[in-house]
Specification:
The chain has two helices and 16 strands. By secondary structure, it is α+β, with helices and mostly antiparallel strands.
């Protein structure tokens, strides 16, 4: 009887142990979606293995490199699921990625593949530009308007951080949207005058596709001492006087050039007039000589005429007969 009891007890214990031992199920694995994946999409995995067991899961890229290695636990029915096994990033190689699952109880492996493609994916980060108003080489304790311009609509507020030289902690600023397309954002900042020297503004922003862009702008913080203000005012007055003096000098130079031009014109006109007067004098002198000649010729002609008249008269008186000498007519 004792031997039978021992045998029955052993069989009962064996049956109990077998009942507690997990029963192996056919190992399966599948991705969250059978279609292609693109950068920034999340890969999830589910499957069936031995109930209440830890299965190992590995992910290999197209070049065969191990990217993820982890575990998942099955439930009472053998089902397991990993909602975020891996998030594909820009820079991951395109091609087929292998998911490999191992069930240590069943001693089985199962695998499947998913494809990563960049086709149709927006992977360009936003181009960010930082603009300061007013635009100056140096800033004191004054209000500065900081504008962030993006070539793509932003998904969230840009993160704006200001760093000043030797300042223990940077300053985080909250930006506000200016446009309906979320491409222009602004905020304000007043430099801390206790930390003069170089300063930097850093902007980090994410676009609608999840691309991260970054921009940096440097400026200088320099606070003027009180004694500099009157000196600066004096310098401004001196500068204004210099500008006025320079303007007067330019006017005098212009007048001098005009006078020189006028003098050159007068000299030219005077030379022309002198030449004309000289020519006129020569003509007058020539005309005077001709007049003298004409007068002389006229006088000579007149004397000749008088001479001829006198001779003619003499000849006439000689030829006229008188009564005493008149011939006696013949009978």
């Amino acid at each position: 009887m004792t031997g039978r009891k021992a045998l029955v007890l052993t069989l009962a214990l064996l049956i109990f142990c077998l009942a507690l031992t997990p029963q192996a199920s056919a190992l399966t694995v599948k991705p969250g979606k059978p279609s292609e994946y693109r950068p920034r999409e999340t890969l999830s995995v589910s499957g069936v293995a031995t109930p209440n067991t830890a299965v190992s899961i590995q992910l290999f890229d197209p070049e065969g490199r191990l990217v993820v290695s982890g575990q998942a636990f099955t439930d009472d029915e053998g089902y397991f699921e990993v909602e975020s096994l891996y998030v594909f990033t820009v820079g991951d190689p395109e091609g087929n990625w292998k998911i490999k699952v191992y069930d240590p109880v069943a001693g089985e492996y199962a695998e499947t593949t998913v494809k990563l493609t960049y086709e149709g994916a927006d992977i360009e980060p936003p181009n960010l530009v930082i603009v300061l108003e007013p635009l100056k080489p140096k800033y004191g304790k004054e209000l500065i308007i900081i504008r962030v311009l993006s070539d793509q609509p932003l998904k969230t507020r840009p993160l704006i951080t200001v760093y000043q030289y030797n300042m223990p902690k940077p300053v985080r600023l909250e930006a506000y949207n200016e446009t309906e397309d979320y491409t222009v954002w602004n905020t304000t900042y007043t430099p801390n005058p206790e930390y003069e020297g170089p300063a930097m503004i850093e902007v980090i922003a994410e676009d609608q596709a999840g691309n991260i862009g970054k921009a940096v702008l440097t400026f200088t913080v320099e606070v003027e001492p009180e004694w500099v203000k009157p000196v600066k005012k004096l310098e401004e007055r001196v500068t204004r006087l210099e500008n006025r003096t320079s303007a007067i000098e330019n006017q005098l130079k212009s007048l001098t050039e005009q006078l020189q031009g006028l003098q050159a014109t007068l000299n030219s006109q005077f030379a022309i007039l002198t030449a004309k007067i000289s020519d006129l004098g020569e003509r007058l002198q020539a005309n005077q000589q001709m007049t003298y000649i004409a007068v002389g010729v006229g006088a000579a002609a007149l004397a000749l005429v008088v001479f001829l008249i006198v001779r003619l008269r003499k000849a006439t008186v000689t030829e006229i007969p008188t009564e005493e000498t008149a011939p006696t007519p013949e009978t």
